[in-house]
Amino acid sequence: MKQADMVAIVTGGSRGIGAAIARKLAREGAEVVIVYRNNQQQAEHVVADIIRQGGKAEAYAADVTQEQEVRQLLDEVAQRHGHIDILINNAGVFEGRPLGEVDADHIARVFDGNMGSMLLMTRHALPFFPARGGRIVNLSSNLIYSPRIGTAIYSASKAAVSVLTHAYALELGPRGITVNAVAPAMTETDMTAATPPARREAVANGTPLGRVARPEDIADVVAFLASDDARWITGRTLLTDGGLTAAL
Ligand SMILES: NC(=O)c1ccc[n+]([C@@H]2O[C@H](COP(=O)([O-])OP(=O)(O)OC[C@H]3O[C@@H](n4cnc5c(N)ncnc54)[C@H](OP(=O)(O)O)[C@@H]3O)[C@@H](O)[C@H]2O)c1
Question: Residue 248 falls within a domain, yes or no?
Answer without folding.
Answer: no
